[in-house]
Design brief:
The chain is α/β, with parallel strands linked by helices and 366 residues long. It is 42% helix and 15% strand. Helix 8 packs parallel to helix 12 and helix 10 packs parallel to helix 12. The chain binds fructose -6-phosphate. Fructose -6-phosphate binds next to helix 4 and helix 10. Keywords: Aminotransferase, Cytoplasm, Glutamine amidotransferase, Repeat, Transferase.
Length: 366
């Protein structure tokens, strides 16, 4: 079943262009999005929604955190993200006009399911599941649903489920923006074109595997790594750090780069590689100043730049040049590069990539 691949994780990373085009199949020829792709009731519910609450665990929660940046910017609707195991036991204030979105690859995660039950018990009726398993528990209990078509994910570390969740969340963003009269027809067409082109854009990142692999030796003998990002790429730094710790057992932490001065800068020395997600977006100049703070303390930077980022390699500054900047959807491309980094670091370390110690694919107990 593995074909030419060494591990399921590698296979699943490389399946992402196909997983994305399968998930986005319904827009292949569409000039306009229809809310019905989220369920028959979506056309009635979306115009009523005054805020969004996203609930999930682990990688799925980072998809939610990325979507928070999209939903607030594009749809102009307030969005918060909560970890399911916290939300389910927290005394929160329910708002019946809030759309509660649960995200889960498996659809069986105990905390996410319990959080959904908690939301419903509090009176939430606008509920939406984004899930990769159509017959799973979570999908059966929401008013609305979107099934990602990543196909079975065998590797414990989530890869293609994450990027397809992101594509579903971008569709949701566009539909909420439409319902909120914030999306012109021209912008809708342009965003749909970018989504349709996404599989090809991901292919170009996959082609960078040899250069990313070349970095893996720099990480394999380290005990710690720091991941930095800003704006919609901060959640991608979080996901990159999670991937590295899960499969290579290297302690990795992610910070929004603006927080460096507030503590983590004290950790920086030449023994802790600092990975920077540095696309050419509106936060780049701020990020470059943060990179300078790291360099000035002898830190080793590993920078994922893209077209126009113009980060020059130098002593202590390693630069991977990604393809042209991809705007709002750029997180989808940058996470693929970080998946490949963690995969290759784990290969050098010889860990069990597909079944990391102490972890289970589906966390059906609390
Ligand atoms: C990380 C990973 C986990 C899952 C989490 C939620 O690579 O796989 O963090 O994302 O256990 O699982 P689902 O999405 O099935 O609810």
């Amino acid at each position: 079943e593995l074909g030419d691949y060494s591990h399921y994780m590698q296979k699943e990373i490389f399946e992402q262009p196909q997983a994305l085009s399968n998930t986005l199949e319904m827009i292949s020829g569409a000039g306009q999005l229809q809310p019905g792709i989220f369920g028959a009731e979506a056309a009635d519910i979306f115009p009523q929604v005054d805020s969004v609450l996203i609930i999930a665990c682990g990688t799925s929660s980072y998809a939610g955190l990325t979507a928070k940046y999209w939903i607030e910017q594009v749809a102009g609707i307030a969005c918060n993200v909560e970890i399911a195991s916290e939300y389910r036991y927290r005394q929160s204030v329910a708002n019946p006009k809030q759309l509660v979105v649960v995200i889960s690859q498996s659809g069986e995660t105990a905390d996410t399911l319990a959080a959904l039950h908690h939301a419903k018990a509090q009176g939430h009726t606008y509920t939406l599941a984004i899930c990769n398993v159509p017959e799973s528990a979570i999908v059966r209990e929401t008013a609305l649903r979107f099934i990602t078509r990543a196909g079975p994910e065998i590797g414990v570390a989530s890869t293609k489920a994450f990027t397809t969740q992101l594509s579903a969340l971008f569709l949701l963003t566009l539909l909420l923006a439409k319902a909120n009269h914030r999306l012109s027809e021209d912008d809708e067409k342009a965003y749909l074109d970018e989504l349709r082109h996404l599989p090809i854009a991901v292919d170009k990142v996959l082609a960078l595997e040899p250069s990313i692999q070349a970095w893996s030796n720099h990480f394999a003998n380290k005990h710690h790594a720091l991941f930095l990002g800003r704006g919609r790429h901060y959640p991608i730094a979080l996901e990159g750090a999670l991937k590295l710790k899960e499969i290579s057992y290297i302690h990795a932490e992610a910070y929004p780069a603006g927080e460096l001065k507030h503590g983590p800068l004290a950790l920086v020395d030449s023994e802790m590689p600092v990975v920077v997600v540095a696309p050419n977006d509106e936060m780049l100049e701020k990020l470059k100043a943060n990179m300078q703070e790291v360099s000035a303390r002898g830190g080793q930077l590993y920078v994922f730049a893209d077209g126009g980022s113009a980060v020059k390699p130098s002593d202590g500054v390693h630069v991977l040049q990604m393809p042209e900047h991809y705007g709002l959807l750029s997180p989808v491309l940058h996470v693929v590069a970080l998946q490949l980094l963690s995969y290759h670091v784990a290969l050098v370390k010889g860990t069990d990539v597909d079944k990391p110690r102490n972890l289970a694919k589906s966390v059906t107990v609390e």
